[in-house]
Amino acid sequence: MSAGPELIASGGAVVAQATDAALSARGVTISYGATPVVFSVDATMPQGSMTAIVGPNGAGKSTLLKGLLDIAPRVAGEVRFFGQPFARARGRVAYVPQRASVDWEFPARALDVVMMGQYRQVGLFRLAGARHRRAALDCLARVGMADFATRQIGALSGGQQQRVFLARALAQGADLYLLDEPFAGVDAATERAVVAVLKALKAEGRTVVCVHHDLSTLAEYFDRVLLMNVRRVAEGPVASALTQDNLQAAYGGRLAAAQTAGLVGGLAG
After folding, report:
1. pLDDT at residue 71, as a whole number
2. Based on the number of CB atoms within 10 Å of its own CB, is 109 exposed (0-12), middle (13-18) or buried (19 or more)?
3. What is the gyration radius of the CA atoms in the chain, in angstroms?
4. Prediction pTM value
5. Out of 19, 41, 85, 87, which residue is the most buried by the measure of CB atoms under 10 Å away?
6. 221-254 b/e with 16+ CB inside 10 Å = b?
7. Share in percent of the chain as helix, strand, coil (round to 5)
């Protein structure tokens, strides 16, 4: 049971931080130079929710995700996972990076990659046993890749590689899944398979957060959205956060007024 909200300072104000949220961030700022890439972003991802992080190119979406995980250095802000710092909650968090950021020439089979997700259960210097192999095969089956277990990861298509990395995340048995553009550059079948797995995780009470780019699928895939452009523009249920004003504030001239009106109208319908 939660001990109740924790009060922390953010931007000079005192705000409530829910300790039972899967992920909460306050005042997160990330900069690679003089100009912040992400500036003073607040976000709360409730447990058992599916949240999309959306915004135009260059909005800092992937950088925010990396900053939350201490992959990109934060210059300000506080992040909590299940009410704890990342170092203490690391075992409950799985991360699937952008496919383009992975070295696919690494000589490993699909099954080997998935079994890498079990190192916390197996131990760093111990060999995985038959039980761990069966669990990894089950994860591959869950994403429709059981028949490719012995295939070299570099020989797989982009969509198949994405499924294998999702299976690797499943093998971790995490409570929170963070995915960086899981649908970018994949085929329609892979997109449907990944969405089905993510929705099943949500049905199990797990939490899913995805950097996403396709506004037309938001309402179908997700129940919450964080709309940003360097700063947070809006956060909340998809239908209430994606108003015409919020979309224009985030995308400006890069999103035509007719597109904005059509999207908002579709959400309202």
Report:
1. 92
2. middle
3. 19
4. 0.85
5. 41
6. bbbbbbbbbbbbbbbbebbebbbeebbeebbeee
7. 40, 25, 30
